[in-house]
Amino acid sequence: MKYLLTTLLISLLYHFSYSQCNNRYQAEIYSSVNITTVNYSDVYSDNFHEMDIYTADGDTAINRPLIIFHHGGSYYQGSKESQGCIDFCTVFAKKGYVAVSANYRLVSLLNIVSFLSNHSEQYEEVLKATADMKSAIRHFKKDFSNGNTYGIDTNAIFIGGISSGGVTAIHSAYIDNITDLPTSPINVQNIANALGGLDGDAGNDGYSSSINGIINFAGGIHQLNWIDTNDEPIFSAQGDNDVIVNYNCGPGLNNPSVLDLCGLGEIHPICDSLGVVNQALTFNNADHFWVVGNSQPEFLQAIDSATSFLYQLLPCNQTTNITELLPNKRKLIRITNLLGKNIQEKYNSPMFYIYDDGYVERKIILK
Question: Domains of the chain by range and CATH?
Fold first, then answer.
């Protein structure tokens, strides 16, 4: 019994100290940021594949959460220097994150008319953008395995964006298999395969593009049935009069020639019904915005709400609880966060053994 009590006491002390996140990630604790521009693709070397990495001056932490953010612009305009992206990344870097504003492939100005009237081209451009976002994710995971230049925690990688950037983030996370894509009236599976499959053609192959959550500002999803019970947590903010990315469901840009998108009003009730961790912030009587950043009160409110949402998902807020003893001396260990969402489940953990009478045979190994 003394062995058991000692083990549990060590575990409780560890989780109490670790769960505080060292007073980071909620408020701006740094006064200035440093911006480094790099190319994130090992296939393409161009402006479309550059990203600005924001880190706080004086921050020496080596396990920081990472958030990769895409600008808006309907896939034919905008850049990583868009004011909303600058403000977003600056705020999160000052809170202790590594924040990234990334460029991605856009439609040529010469092809805008064709793009806005051709569903095949629209699918292709969204898939290119998701390929670029996933390549950026893999860039950081590759860097982590080669020294972790930016001091990130690969268990705390989030993606997001404004408008079309939000569309990209959602589709990057919620399209799980090629077979999810339609084959009629357009064979989107063929389009995806021609671009290198769901992981895309932008390089950094051999590393996972999995993420831990989504921040969606006025973006949407093309097909609601792509949302399933295993999907990543999502935060969304949107005006309920938005028709550029429809708050409910409707053609993008309010243009019948553009593919349908479904916004916050449809995404989050489905997430609720499926048990997907989510939070929604609706601005009543507001339309599509998000371009000018901090000068909009709604933008600042969305940043604050997104900060609180992400904080509950961070590894430093996860706790390990033994919640169930199973027959034949098997046990279930659940790792949960402040939202109560199961992050991981393990049977027969090698860390320790718990018998039917609750006796711990081997000490928990804390790392």
Answer: 1-19+319-367 (no CATH), 27-317 (3.40.50.1820)
